[in-house]
Amino acid sequence: xxEERVSIVVLTxxxxxxxxxxxxxxxxxxxxxxxxxxDNGCTDGTADHxxxxxxxxxxxxxxxxxxxxxxxxxxxxxxxxxxAFCDDDTCWAPGALExxxxxxxxxxxxxxxxxxxxVGADARLDPACAAMAQxxxxxxxxxxxxxxxxxxxxxxxxxxxxxxxxxxxxxFFIGGEETLLSLDIMADxxxxxxxxxxxxxxxxxxxxxxxxxxxMLARNALWTAWLRxxxxxxxxxxxxxxxxxxxxxxRLRACRDALGGWELxxxxxxxxxxxxxxxxxxxxxxxAAG
Length: 290
Prior knowledge:
The protein is of the alpha/beta class. It is built from twelve helices and eleven strands.
């Protein structure tokens, strides 16, 4: 049974209304699957509401907001071979997790399956899906193309792959946190694949700090390049990240933010293998040409 193969980890921070909607939909669409909710330092009474209204859901309380790394505490409680991730504003479609488990059972080389994401009440396709569908990396027959990354709230992953790669790196907090984990999974020999037959729904929350997220996205992209890429490749990637920022003020701030963690980066730097670097170059060159 797929319920014995897949657990669902949901990360939340001070968005009880959105979380309640997600849990109601998971109960309707994915009934029987173990659900683990990570209370990421909530101060809005989420834990009390959850224990009262959804007693079957496993609650993991984190004493402070760890950002993306809060998911690590949820995965630590998973006992199934596969884990499906949700945010508190996403939900898996009926049948998606069963199909994901079957695919992972059949393809030992796949570590991560990224779903097709349908946004809002009109279920419009997330633009990121078009980019994933056009990946220049080889496709796995009957599934979809290989990727160099995934979306944190829209993937099903081998639990062991997550644990072996170390999960999400806590210093990132949030913003592009998937990239480093993706690189480490690929370096361990796992493949990341876009599987459009798997669907997840996304109702974007209005409760977001967009300016802070944009700032951390730039810092974390620089950190990721410095943590894993060979020196020349890291320099080229850093320039590409800075060029994508809207102005010199933002570029200087990104450099200042990133350089503030230089000692931490030096301590944790580990260079990627040539095969993984080749995949990255293939995708980045295609994106630059497009």
